[in-house]
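Annotated sample (chain length 266).
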Amino acid sequence: SISGLLAQMAWATGPKLFEPERGRLKPTPEAKDLFDVVERNFLGLDRIEQRVAVLRTAGAGTLRVGCTPAISLSLMPAVVAQFCRRHPEVQVSVQTHSGLQLWDGRQQGPFDVVLSTMVAGSTEAKVTTLHRGRAVCVMNPRHPLAAHSRLNVRDLRGQVLLTLPHDDEFQVQVQKVLESHGVQPASTIETTYSFTICRMAAEGAGIGIVNPYVASVFARDVRVVPLSPALPVEIVRGYPPQFAPSRSTEAFQAVFEAHLKTLSRT
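Output written by the structure step:
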C-alpha cells in the first residue's frame, strides 16, 4: 500500500522523489523541498485548529477592556480575577483612561468593551446603563459632620471641599447643585482623581463628593455619608460600533453584571 501511494505521489508531482538503495528509499532533494512545504502547511492547519478550539470555548484570545479610573480601582480587580479563574486561556488587558479618551477609543476600535461613569459625549454612541447609584460624601471619621446619617448639600456651606477639576463632567453637576442651593465653601482643594479625594479626606483635609464605587474602596478609612439632593451616578457600557461582541467579551460582561448585582444588594 505504501509503495502504491509513493508511486502515485511521484506520478502526480512529476519530479523524482525517491532513489532506491539496497531495498530502501532515499528521498531526493526535491522530496525534501516538498516535505518542508507540506510540513509548514500542516503546522499552519494545526495552529488554525488550535485557534478554532479556543474561539469555540472562549472567543477571541485577547480581551481589551477600557474603563475610567473609578471603575478600574473599585470594580475591576474582583471582576478580572473571577473572569480569569473561569477563562484562564483569555489574555486580559485593562486600560484606564478618562471618559473622553475611552469614547474616542471606542469609535476607533482599540477596546472590545468600554465601561465608564461618564456618558458618551457623542449622540451617535450607543451605550447601555448597567448600574445607577448616587454620589456620597467622604470625610475623616472624626470630622464634625461624620456623625450625620445623611447630609444635605447646605451642610457643606463653609466647609473645605475636595473637588475634581472644574471641567470634569461629574464636578460640573456638583457645582450646579452647590450654586442652586447657595452653598459657598470655605475653600476648595482640586485634584484629578476621586481616589485622591478619598485619601485626602481620610487625612482630614476636607470633605469630598465622589461616586459610591470609589468610596466603597476607602470605607475603612473614611466616613461615607449619603448626600441630598441625590446626585445620580451611572455605570455605562459601550461596544465598538464596527464589531459585534466576541464570546470572551460577552463572558466578561456577564461576570461584570453579576458583580454589579451584589452591589445593589448591599
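Annotation: Residues 10 and 16 are 6 Å apart (CA to CA).
Annotation: Residues 29-58 form the longest helix (30 residues).
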